[in-house]
Amino acid sequence: MSDIRKWFMKSHDKGNGNAMLGKPASSDSGKPPPAKPQPDKPVHPVQENPARKKTSKYFAADKQKLKDEIEVEEVSTKRKSRKDTGQSLKTPPSKKMHTVEEEEDDDDDDFVLPTPKKSSDVTPSKKLKSGSGRGVPKKLEDVEESDDDDHKDAKSPPKSGGRGRGGRGACAAPAGGRGRGGGGRGGFMNFGERKDPPHKGEKEVPEGAPDCLAGLTFVISGTLDSLEREEAEDLIKRHGGRVTGSVSKKTNYLLCDEDIEGRKSAKAKELGTTFLTEDGLFDLVRSSIRTKTPVQEKSKSTEKAVPSLTKKTPQKVDPKSVSPQGLALGSRAALKKDQMTKPSSLTWTEKYRPKVPNDIIGNQSLVTQLHNWLAHWNEQFLDTGKKGKGKKQSDPSAKKAVLLSGSPGIGKTTSAKVVCKMLGFQAVEVNASDSRGKADSKISKGIGGSNANSIKELVSNESLSVNMDWSKHPKSVLIMDEVDGMSAGDRGGVADLIASIKISKIPIICICNDRYSQKLKSLVNYCLLLNFRKPTKQQMAKRLMQIAQAEGLQVKEIALEELADRVNGDIRMALNQLQYMSLSMSVINYDDVKQRLVSSAKDEDISPFTAVDKLFGFNGGKLRMDERIDLSMSDPDLVPLLIQENYMNYRPSAAGKDDNDIKRMSLIARAADSIADGDIINVQIRRYRQWQLSQASCLASCIIPAALLHGRRETLEPGERNFNRFGGWLGKNSTMGKNLRLLDDLHDHLLASRESNSGRESLRVDYMSLLLKRLTDPLRALPKDEAVAEVVELMNLYSISQEDFDTIAELSKFKGRPNPLDGIPPAVKSALTRSYNESSRSRMVRAADLITLPGVKKAPKKRIAAILEPSDDGLGEQNGDALAENEEENSSDMEDQEDAANGEKKLQLDLEGLNSKAIKVELDLKGNENSSAKKKPAGRGRGGAGAAAAKRGGSGSTPAAKRKR
Amino acid sequence: MLWVDKYRPKTLDQVIVHEDAAQNLKKLVSEQDCPHLLFYGPSGSGKKTLVMALLRQMFGSSSEKVKVENKTWKIDAGTRNIDIELTTLSSTHHVEMNPSDVGFQDRYVVQEIIKEMAKNRPIDTKGKKGFKVLVLNEVDKLSREAQHSLRRTMEKYSASCRLILCCNSSSKVTEAIRSRCLNIRINAPTEDQIVKVLEFIAKKEGLQLPAGFAARVAEKSNRSLRRAILSFETCRVQQYPFTINQVISPMDWEEYISEIVSDIMKEQSPKRLFQVRGKLYELLINCIPPEIILKRLLHELLRKLDAELKHEVCHWAAYYEHRMRLGQKAIFHLEAFIAKFMSIYKAFLIATFG
């Protein structure tokens, strides 16, 4: 039965399972406390419940009560007492604030207090002879029960193997393993790639008593026989063991299969650490169940160790927080507390906020530094102000303000407050993100005490109104919290803060998250910088353990370490998580923490690479849908690109045993198809603003490909590192954009030459080959001068500039094919450039480049090419004619001819234009349909002037051309 | 000058290939008015040439006096301002542009720029030809929205403005627009016609043309006259005098695509797919339009494939071509096609040869 029940609870329906199980107990608990001596039997299913993390909070109302009552009877009276202390902790902080010193004294007193307090406080469970005494044996029974249970479980592993504790690991193995087993080991071994376990997923992962490995420390080295390293780690942690990275004296076992002669094994040999194979580990785990007695003993002993610890720790924790009134209050509050349900209490983060500097986890040296700074502030700055300028100058490095920085939740604000209290400063906290910009700065000015016209609300403030007369009043300190969020509202925020720092007569503590923020650049120069680091997980776990025990929560240390690890140094978050979990369970195991935090870990930033790794990883198939969405949404632009770049590198585990890769190919085709779908959806989103489709897009472009192809990553090219490449599309796309622009330019030039009228596309697709041939072949084949002349002629004809020449060559370059410019002697190339430049001096600007007209200050808005005249008849002839003259003269001649044809008026206008130097480039020949070149000779004379005009306009930048004339 | 441009017919009378169409057009505009026109046909068939010749017929040689303008238009689109840069080719009588160049903002080009141009009636002292011609290229690439806004413009300003639309496929032009225009289909010239043109050019250039050579060029040209003339000239640059067996080298990018095709026929593996992706990127970077890549890929594949598979591969090519138009990142679709092909072909090979 326990088997089924366990399964029941294990899977989704915790609440139900609990409800069902809770029923029988309710009759018991219905009876008032005297039910105590009641046989354990009917009670323990229930009791086992909390032990098994049940009791859903959704059944809060009655269940909660029920649980409470049971707890009263069973779990621990200690808990009660701890609650009391908790209560006392809660006592309004303000009262205690200025009595820090006293509190410290209390510490000693309190050591005497606990026992009497406990017995007296625990009113509801008065029948218990002694709370603390009772707690321990009860717990032992508890453990026995659970052991028993596990034992039963273990007896039926063949059936429940996939479901029980070890279940996750066990099903993980085959799923992930199949695809990989076939993968070619050996061959090119990449950096960072560990060999696959040779018998991956072939062994059954055993389950054991939850604590069978407790107190043991393992180090894993090399490749194991059947487990992935993560799985092995998981297995050990689940059974209460600890996994560390390197071998030390404390290491009990080195887990490795073959002796790989690594550093770890060498060290282990040196230290005499026991070597353990994977099978050994399994045996160890299995034996915990098979041989009931030893394990029980063992777990008993470990359990014993815990309570003894808990006994100690509360005393350590409590005293600090118990003030005289607190004690009195505490007992009353405890009474009340029992009627109340737990959630009504203060959040733990507030409740267990450190009260003395030593309570702060990590960064002790910084706290000391802060302490010293604050302690010496007055003599450093204030006194010198009074006495003269002696000291200030002697220590130029001293800063009047301090800037605490560090990630959220590591205790910056707390340390600041605690230190202030300790030194007897009255802290005025200005929370920059609440009260916005200007008010802020004014407040700070007011506090600074320099401004006579401080705002009235500040005047009303006791400590401020008198801050002129400093010495008589409690010292105050300004804490500017979240300064990096300050300048959101007003611009002068930081500058104002700096100003007030300069004139301030009180210490200022600024707190920010990101010290390198752009906004704070100027501020950092005026501040002593203290950068808070994240506490280590051991430090955090220690503190969490204290708190958990103070709250009467049974938590394995390993679980707390996991928790500390997951929250990424944020102790506030850890506490919140812990409190939340405490609502539904009173015993927290490693697995609970792990499961719980899988979902909450998403808050941290995931890099797109990590996201892709996770999606495609061998565990990718087991992710929940919302997790997948979270992963792919972590960067909805980049993740799809990364996936598109890398999807074909994965050997899908879904393909199973796959000869010839047929399945893999078809999976890849499906994935590619889906990625293309994603692109189409993306167009809908961006172009038509259908943002509601973004989920679909992420499904199509990330999740489906990942679901199809997740597995082991392979390298496709020798020498490639086995990491996901950055999406190539971005780079390629920008290159493509650049080339398109170049092609556009070329196209414009060609159009401007008026010789060709083709579209851009056909220019690239059809013309390019020939153009390239015409431009480069002569350079290879013909003698230098002749070749250059020919090419330059062609370039002039099509007004192909030097850059266009390069464009053509560039666009015809294909990887893996010879460069189109190969084989052209450098001498010829330079001759070409020279000759081209020479002729360009006299070349009219035909291209659509920006022209600055002399005399016209502002460049015209239009980018205009020169005007191109019609060449109605045999162009060849004309060109021949014009050999003597430069080409552009021809064209400008033509213009003028037309002008002439247009009659005197037009000409006059033209000349006027010329005179006034408003050089005309556009000849707006409105309505002169019948311009023809009939008047060629006549036009020529004037043509000179016209041409000059055109030139001044056209190639105004090269006066050389004019001189040539 | 390149022969393509040199021997391009300048007037309707000079037209060799589509003489009948040219004559009809001539008659059409001889009454000095014309409806909106829609030219459609495969590339290299002579649409553009006909349009230019037609303009010349309508406005005389002044229509050839064009200027190229690269102008930035500031468009106020409600909430934001959009800058659109567009190259236009204009004479006093006509404006030619390629609105699809600006991509998905083509709607604004039609709504604002074209409308503005269409509104301005050219001043004509002689009271003659009181309209302007707007030549729009690649209408089939216009987005649906742009086409919708176009049809209103066509009606509203028909007094002052005529539209000449050019496109490759009329099926991608909306029904509404097609019905507002006189549709003129320009067929791809037959190989005989191409041969005739090539011979004409050879005569003008004074070239010795071995028998059958022109026919081979024509055959290789895929019935695109432009292609034929260009490759004819390429041959001339490569080797003259011509020999009968002279190699007619394909375009650089065509060679590259054939390479890709032989790659994927040889091996179907993720590794090969990865390499092919690199090559596709090369093509795209070199500004080869993705549709042309896909078309060419299919063309090459069909030449090498077994008959059984042809149908299926064609189906998929069409499928992905359509999707490519809907999408934006062409490489995704090209890759999907290749992957699909690989998967089909691999399964086929193994089913057939075990």
UniProtKB/TrEMBL annotation, chain B:
A molecular function GO annotation:
DNA binding
Q: Can you supply one Gene Ontology CC term for this chain's record?
A: DNA replication factor C complex
State the superkingdom.
Answer: Eukaryota
Per UniProt, subcellular location reads as:
Nucleus
The alphabetized list of GO BP terms reads: DNA repair; DNA strand elongation involved in DNA replication
Q: How does it assemble?
A: Heterotetramer of subunits RFC2, RFC3, RFC4 and RFC5 that can form a complex with RFC1.
Name of the protein in its database record: AAA+ ATPase domain-containing protein
What species does this protein belong to? Answer: Corymbia citriodora subsp. variegata
